[in-house]
Amino acid sequence: MTVTEEREVGSPRRRKEDARLITGRTMWTENVVLPGMLHLAILRSPVAHARITHVDTSAARELSGVVDAFSGRDVADIQGGLPCAWPVTEDMVHPDHPPLAVDEVRHVGEPVAVVVARSRAAALDALAAVEVDYEALPVVLDLEAALADGADLVHADKGTNRSYTWVFDSGEAGTGEAVDAALDGAEVVIKRRYRQQRLIPAFMEPRSVVVDPTGDQYTIWSATQIPHILRFLVSAITGTPEHKVRVVAPDVGGGFGGKLQVTPEELIAFVAAKRLGKPVKYTESRSDSLVSAHHGRDMIQDIELAARRDGTITGLRVKLLANMGAYLGLVTPGVPILGAFMYNAIYKIPAYRFECTGVFTNTTFTDAYRGAGRPEATYAIERIMDELAVEVGLDPVEVRRRNWINADEFPYTTVAGLTYDSGDYEAATTRALELLGYDELRREQAQRRDSGDTVQLGIGVSTYTEMCGLAPSRVLGSLRYGAGGWETASIRMLPTGKVEVVTGTSPHGQGHETAWSQIVADQLGVAFDDVEVLHGDTRTSYKGLDTYGSRSLAVGGIALYNACQKVVDKAKPIAAHMLECDPADLEFTGGQFRVRGNPDNGKSLADCALAVFAAHDLPDGVEPTLDADAVYDPVNFSFPHGTHLCAAEVDTQTGRVAIRKYVAVDDIGRVINPLIVEGQVHGGVAQGVAQALFEDAVYDADGNLLSGTFVDYTLPSPADLVDIVTDRTESPAPDHPLGTKGVGEAGTIASTPAVVNAIVDALRPYGVNDIQMPCTPERVWRAAQGGGA
Amino acid sequence: MTGLYEEIREEPAADVPVRRVSITVNGAKRTADVEPRLLLAHLLRQGFTLTGTHVGCDTTNCGACTVLLDGQPVKSCTMLAVQADGHEVTTVEGLAGPSELHPIQEGFSDEHGLQCGFCTPGMMLAAKALLETNPDPTEDEVRWALSGNLCRCTGYQNIVKSILWAARKLQSQAGT
Predict the structure, then answer these.
(1) Max CA-CA distance within chain A?
(2) Helices A264-276 and A227-238: crossing angle, nearest 10°?
(3) Does A115 map to a domain?
(4) Which site in A62, A522, A737, B18 is 20 to 30 Å from A416, CA atoms measured?
(5) Nearest in space to A426 (alpha carbons), one of A461, A400, A392, A387
(6) What is the spatial distance between Cα B101 and Cα B95, in angstroms, rounded to a whole number?
(7) Taking CB atoms and an 8 Å cutoff, what residues of chain B touch A710?
(8) Does residue A741 share a domain with residue A724?
(9) Residue that finishes a domain, picked among A242, A274, A292
(10) B18: which chain A residues are within 8 Å (Cβ-Cβ)?
(11) Contacts of A21 in chain B (CB under 8 A)
(12) Which among A342, A219, A370, A318 has a CA at the least distance from the CA of A695?
């Protein structure tokens, strides 16, 4: 173990990334322009389910500026199919997913035909000249109806709308007791149905892809979170040798899981570029994006909680229906399964059963959206904990306290079989209650209730944990996921002592260039500005598993740390040689190798870098390089946790909800850059609040997406949100040399139930025990009138 | 429509009308022959290679394309290029001097007012217009002034702080 002075880690460094982003010098995929580049436009299905009886692109091909036009039938044999990397059960129904529909369309927005032209305008104009005839087929939208006998089918050849049923039972798994007995004999049983509305990730940068075929090489620029996975899968799907495919994720404008996908559009652009032998660009419009980029959430959650009268939980049964949409995306089936490990949350629950059925409908396919399975689980358990509190007559904080894992019980193996590494739920909750002024607000709440105030006050509690740092490869394998969960880092020591870091993570707003520089600066004792972080181009960063699941620091950070140690280990014999001492007598601090007890005599890492560059006088047998690679496969997930509290004022006459105060106390282990961490919490909370109050992807009875633009899919604006109060407690991750956990999804996971619990709490005196999300003024008003919601 | 390279244009189709527009962009007069239907955002991005102006939606909701037209914030995706004929346009590329950032840019960096950065140019230009009419805004005034600009990363808290930071700096500069 190397001992270094810690100077950078923990400091709120301003981000390196900002220089280009604030001056308009960013390199988005849409900015890529190549000589001879053509533009692609996609004709999308206007109907939710139909047989394609006729397509004619000939008129489009005759138009000015148009170079090519084709339909799914024209490329059916060569276009390949989109991958699903997570067949969660052996018998999962996995329908073909052609990039361009061939015989049938199964959701509005599905690509049907393509025009390639010399300008984007010409390509878009020519779409109007493509003739398509559709023969309507029955539209499947309702999850329960889809599973009924004799239901109309999304994929007629499959004979069912059920993709899979996945079960975890603690009695069978040996991680706990059987849940049926717990529920049968329970003093208290609370049963609820919660609906996770469909959401749209709605990253601000629309997706864009450029495919450049030059000779037998294909370079793909894409607004993706996963350049490495994309390269591997494009190679596998198209039969292009992997070394002939280069993927570049330049600056990427947000993802939130929405760019964790191999998309139809990427493969269509590949097919078009290959067909024409010329570079082709596709950039989606926002309306295209909202109807075709994968959606998230959309589940029906039936949850039953068994408890004793004193509030102690004795069992938990969860039955999910998860909307897959019309097809399976990259990890679609696995998203609700990630939640399976999180319904038990921070609580000691003796018996647990989870069952999830994935259902096909004629809608845009769903997949990962910030939190992916964990926000849904946290919502259901944290909502029903409040119901338990009411049922047994306890304060919602107290009922949680009676059930949560105590700080001295870590590591703790849960009923779902995970071993939580560390945490202190009491500490985070105590801090959050102080910051909110909980007792005082409860007094005000009582006063408002007593006086019959038309504006009621509610306090929502959410004590969450999550599993992040995806993920130990063996665990992923046991869950039938198609890839591992390791991450990689390389250090390149330049002769002048400057450092290039190559990471396998692929940031799209997270600030890895800054945080990684901080880690390296400390570990190698070099200046923050002497480190350059390279990422997102498979030519420089040829290996990696990219960025999602709050994994980049929790996994990639360890790879980076380990690579730094290797550099130091390589430099040590060289420094010893220069200092004419035994390497065992050297210590490395602040970038200097010094002989113990002789602090004046030292050699810096830069001296060693120059020495290996010259290579004139190295010890015998020493390879003239300090460069080092490391690949790290995590031994466990990491388990951030925290307590979020929301105080909301609810106007019973208008249904307006105003967040009065929101407190987020998160324990994410040690923090590399508090500025970045705070930003992640702010943004995460905003997205969770948006689910609670604003966002809803709505289909009409014919399967048309009604919320297909930002007019109708209502992202909150600055005027819709308030400042939140953030603080942290710190339980370092014991398996991580830097003690870090992960923060990318925490805010989103925690905040939705905090807000809804606050609204329901405000309206308890009105007989309200649930409000469907998003809690719009209309729904809140109806609930307050006793009309249900 | 010219591309990003200085190229000789193909003859436009006979039925495509073309209008000449002259726009002063970031202080320099620029002229282009454009189709009347061309959006200002596209002229700035593709015609003038000012790719700091971003297009994030097609319904005037997100504000990523916000530029200043004679000092007023406009959404350049909902304005035709010909409507800007004879006017002055400021884009994000016009904010900084050759060696010095605008205080609003400094504020965004200092207060971590951006993550992915896609909304940032529009946010900064909307903020510039605000601070020119209201040099000492409250937090609430900042939120309302920016309510036509969407960000998915930050939750806006640090954007507001960034703009208040810039307001303080601009005021202290004006006072000295």
Answers:
(1) 87
(2) 60
(3) yes
(4) A737
(5) A400
(6) 7
(7) 57, 59, 61-62, 150
(8) yes
(9) A292
(10) none
(11) 114, 116-117, 120
(12) A370
- Residue A758 structure tokens: 């606050």
Which ranges in A597-745 belong to alpha helices (H)? 605-614, 674-693
Give me the interface pTM, i.e. the ipTM.
0.97
The pLDDT confidence band at residue A599, using thresholds 50, 70 and 90, is: confident
Among A216, A210, A208, which residue's Cα sits nearest to residue A279? Answer: A210
Q: How many domains does chain A have?
A: 3
Instruction: List the domain boundaries for chain B.
Output: 19-94, 103-175
E strands along A609-640, which residues? 628-632
- Best of A13, A32, A39, A204 to disrupt the B interface (most B CBs within 10 Å) is A204
Question: Is the separation of the CB atoms in A167 and A276 below 8 Å?
Answer: no
Please give the pLDDT value at position A786. 85
A600 and A686, same domain (yes or no): no
Instruction: Say if residue A621 is in the same domain as residue A669.
Output: no
Q: What's the CATH code, domain B19-94?
A: 3.10.20.30
* Superfamily of domain B103-175, CATH level 4: [2Fe-2S]-binding domain (1.10.150.120)
Q: Provide the shortest C-alpha distance from residue B175 to chain A (in Å).
A: 26
What CATH number should be reported for the domain holding residue A618? 3.30.365.10
Q: Give the length of chain A.
A: 789
> What is the helix, strand, coil percentage profile of chain B, to 5?
40, 15, 45
- A505 DSSP 8-state letter: -
Across the interface, of A252, A710, A717, the residue whose CB is closest to B147 is A717
Tell which residue, B92, B83, B40, has the closest CA to residue A19. Answer: B92
Last residue within a domain, chosen from A616, A632, A648: A632
**Residue A518 to residues A227, A323, A365, A561, A674, Cα–Cα distance (Å):** 24, 42, 39, 11, 12
**CB-based contacts of A601: which residues, under 8 Å, 6+ apart?**
A579, A594, A595
3-state secondary structure of A491: strand
A406 inside domain: yes
Averaged pLDDT, A81-92? 97
Torsion-angle region of A447 (φ positive above 0: left; ψ -120 to 50: alpha; else: beta): alpha
Q: Do A124 and A52 sit in the same domain of this protein?
A: yes
- Whether A169 is in a domain gets the answer no
What are the tens digits of pLDDT across the range B16-53?
789 999 999 999 999 999 999 999 999 999 999 999 99
Q: Helix, strand, or coil here: A73?
A: helix
**Pair (A612, A682) in one structural domain:** no
Confidence label for B176 from pLDDT (cuts 50, 70 and 90): low
Tell me the percentage of chain A whose pLDDT exceeds 90: 96
Whether A620 and A644 map to the same domain: the answer is no
- Say whether pLDDT at B2 is over 70: no
Q: What is the pLDDT of residues A493-540, one digit of tens each?
A: 999 999 999 999 999 999 999 999 999 999 999 999 999 999 999 999
Parent domain of A593: 18-25+486-632
Q: How do residues A537-594 score in pLDDT, each as one tens digit?
A: 999 999 999 999 999 999 999 999 999 999 999 999 999 999 999 999 999 999 999 9
Q: At residue A12, does pLDDT exceed 70?
A: yes
Q: Do B91 and A24 touch (CB under 8 A)?
A: yes
Residue A648 reports pLDDT greater than 50: yes
A626 and A665 together in one domain:
no
Nearest alpha-carbon partner for A39 in A121, A127, A111, A128: A121
